[in-house]
Amino acid sequence: MASLWVFSGTALLMRAYLVPVFLVFPVAFALNRLGQHYDIRPEDPAQWSTLMKPSWFWDFAYLWSNYHLEHHYFPGVPFYNLPKLRRLLNEYFQAKGMRSHGYGQLIYHYLVLNKRPHTDWRGTVTNATKLRESESAKQMSSGREPTSL
Q1: Is the whole-model pTM more than 0.70?
Q2: How far is the C-alpha of 128 from the C-alpha of 107, rounded, in Å?
Q3: 3-state secondary structure of 101
Q4: Whose CA is closest to 39, among 125, 119, 123?
Q5: Which of 7, 36, 53, 117 has the fewest beta carbons under 10 Å from its own?
């Protein structure tokens, strides 16, 4: 980092190192974490990680770490064979009733619906749902027709 600053100046140091490290990496890391342990079934060890939808873009962007569940099942499988392992495990995942998620879906459920990490998101009541129910109850008790939020 020091040699980058000495030979190229502050502007290049900011663009090539500081901006990615402090602005890009934290967002990318947080998004990657969403794909690891968010919509899980705590009572079933086979479902202690999130099943992600395969995607050539996310495979490359996250160096295949979006196959976290498959890695938990078979930690000795090299990263480049994880997509093949996923295809072999699809029947098992379907038999267990497991759902695959995309990153957009996880972001929506986590940030908008306020669903908690490390929980089963099927049938969970979110803060947004509680707020809507509370507002509806207030409107009904005041004699007004409930409106949708």
Answers
A1: no
A2: 15
A3: strand
A4: 119
A5: 7
Q: Compute mean pLDDT per 10 residues along the chain, 149 residues long, and list them.
A: 67 74 78 78 83 87 86 91 93 89 86 84 60 60 55
DSSP secondary structure, 103-139, as one string? HHHHHIIIIIS-PPTTB--TTPPPHHHHHHHHHHHHH
* 113 Cβ contact partners less than 8 Å away, ≥ 6 residues apart: 126, 128, 129
23, 25, 29, 30: CA torsion to nearest 10: 0
Of residues 125, 122, 114, 112, the one with CA closest to residue 39:
122
DSSP string, 45-68: GGGSS--BPP-HHHHHHTTTTT-H
Q: Which residue has the tokens 């879906």?
A: 105
